Amino acid sequence: MWPDSQTCDEALTVFADRHLSHGLGLLDALIGQTAAALNLPLHTFNQRHYAAIPNLKTAQPYQK
């Protein structure tokens, strides 16, 4: 999936607002915002960083 320019702009805004407070990286912001824009859950164990992205649903891929 390739994010459109609006999704990239939103990811940059989320990154700028929440990088220091949540430890959110630029690529994490882009990945998370792309999933949120597509209304798809993001399967990840790194739920702490992705919690900073509005309207993003996360799911643990499998039980550890």
> What percent of residues adopt helix (DSSP H or I)?
40-55%
Identify low-pLDDT runs.
Answer: none
**Annotation field: number of helices:** 3
> Which structural class best describes the helix and strand composition?
mainly alpha
For the termini, the CA-CA separation is 28 Å
Gyration radius, to the nearest Å?
A: 11 Å
Multimeric status of the protein: single chain
Fraction in beta strands = 5-15%
Q: Which overall shape is indicated by the principal axes computed on the Cα atoms?
A: globular
Order of helices and strands: HHEHE
In the sheet with the most strands, the strands line up as 1-2
The major beta sheet can be summarized as:
2 strands, parallel
Average pLDDT confidence is 93
Tally of strands:
2
List the helices and strands and how they pair.
Blueprint: H1 5-22, H2 26-37, E1 42-43, H3 47-50, E2 58-59
Could you explain how this protein is built, in words?
This protein has one domain (5-59). The termini are far apart. The longest helix is centred in the N-terminal third of the chain and has 18 residues, at 5-22. It has three helices and two strands. Helix 1 (5-22) packs across helix 2. Strands 1-2 form a two-stranded parallel ribbon. The protein has 64 residues and is mainly alpha-helical. The model has no long low-confidence stretch (mean pLDDT 93).
Primary descriptors:
64 residues, mainly alpha, two-stranded parallel ribbon, 3 helices, 2 strands
Summarize the structure.
With 64 residues, the chain is mostly helical.
